[in-house]
Structure prediction request, 257 residues.
Amino acid sequence: MNTKTTNQRFELIPLAQIQPSDYQRKTNSAQVESIVKNFDEAKLGTLTLSLRAGKYYAIDGAHRLTALRELGYTHAMCEILADLTHEQEAAYFKNQGDDKRGLKPFELYRAGLIADDEKCLKIREIVKSNGFEIGFNSKDFQKIGAINSLFTAADDYGFEGLDYTLCLIANTWAGIAKAISGECILGVAEFVSRYGVLDVDKQLCDRFFAVWYDYKEIAGRTQYSEKVRNDFCRVLVKHYNKSLGKNSPNKLKYVEE
Prediction:
């Protein structure tokens, strides 16, 4: 049977009484600046403190604490843990994430739709307009599970870039489930951003598996990094050029960036 080893309560604590702890990470000024710039009290949560020898020590929330001070706050709602030794505090800090499960991309996306988040709504609109939906079925071409890649493409290439990307994939490789993988989405988005919307559906419609094989040969196990999109784009250029005549003036030139 599990037993409770600490006394816990929630209390509004003056920020001036909270001291740093020696096991905390070094303060990241960029992270503090981001919290200040995008401050939303509803997302603040509670700071976790240890009450030891009559003093409050920050266990979790040091960056939020610094941001609150910069914003002029004098108090914050805190979770107070009492009866911990200095060593137990450090262990708590080290293991605090063990029982926490971060939200998955689909859960964030779904919550964004309910909250009328503009980006989530726009991505859903673009996905739907190109004949897709967001879902999870690795054998179903219509269901895109690579949600992070959709958001990355929208962030890096704009909504128009994402729209062109999905349109190109739908018109060129309809029915091929791997064509809606994260690698392919980002690689095609990079291709579109470099060369515009070309007649890829004519030049590459029968070449997807050759493209995929060549991409996997050079990419290995690397996934979803900056290298992924560039590798996939380079292979697309190679096969696009192969489909043209030997002396065609329309051949593309790939320049490493």
